[in-house]
């Protein structure tokens, strides 16, 4: 959407229907309320005098999942969210995590695919260290992903451990495209 600057009107000038429709009605239709198409959508500025509607995405998985992989993998059935973004998106994820080995970690991160490719990264992942073994914790975090390519991006929870077998339960992923 973009806004059209109204023409200058002089005193005594007749305002025609065409003038009114172009410079008053059409500009009023450029409000966020007039442009909204989806309940729960949000609007973000995409440039000077321009906005776009974005739809928040979320997914949950309350089933227990495990991995013994020391590299990030997408767990079968783990939350994944497809959203249309511009260059940024705010992701929040949480889960109940543990590891069956004393002092070993369960790690839960987010990977991005689609218009952008970003690998899950320990630096922004949830990390839980089991001490004693099988000590569960329910934790969450958020991260602002920047430098995304505009378009359809898929955010997927990925998991790994550094030893033993890590367990994940009650996972949730929410992505707010900006």
Topology, element by element:
Layout: H1 17-28, H2 32-35, E1 42-47, E2 50-54, E3 57-61, E4 65-67, E5 73-74, E6 80-85, E7 89-99, E8 104-114, E9 126-130, E10 137-145, E11 151-161, E12 166-177
Antiparallel strand pairs: 1-2, 3-12, 4-12, 5-11, 6-11, 7-10, 7-12, 8-9, 8-11
* Total of DSSP H or I helical runs spanning 4+ residues: 2
CATH topology of the domain at 54-177: Jelly Rolls
As a whole number of angstroms, the C-alpha radius of gyration is 23 Å
The major β-sheet equals: 5 strands, antiparallel
In terms of DSSP E residues, the strand content is over 45%
**CATH architecture annotation name of the domain at 54-177:** Sandwich
Give the CA-CA distance, first to last residue.
16 Å
Q: Compute the number of strand runs.
A: 12
Q: What would CATH call the homologous superfamily of the domain at 54-177?
A: Sf6-type phage tail needle knob
Tell me, what is the CATH class of the domain at 54-177?
A: Mainly Beta
The SS-based structural class is mainly beta
Shape: rod-shaped
How confident is the prediction overall: mean pLDDT? Answer: 89
What string, H for helix and E for strand, traces the elements in order? HHEEEEEEEEEEEE
Helical content (DSSP H or I, runs of 4+): under 10%
Low-confidence stretches: none
How would you explain this protein's 3D organization?
The chain is mostly beta strands. The chain has a domain at 54-177: Sf6-type phage tail needle knob (Jelly Rolls), CATH 2.60.120. It is 9% helix and 48% strand. The chain has 2 helices and 12 strands, in the order ααββββββββββββ. It has helices spanning 17-28, 32-35; strands spanning 42-47, 50-54, 57-61, 65-67, 73-74, 80-85, 89-99, 104-114, 126-130, 137-145, 151-161, 166-177. The strands form 3 sheets. Strands 3, 4, 7, 10 and 12 form a 5-stranded antiparallel sheet that branches. Strands 5, 6, 8, 9 and 11 form a 5-stranded antiparallel sheet that branches. It is rod-shaped. It starts with 16 loop residues before the first helix and ends with a strand. The mean pLDDT is 89.
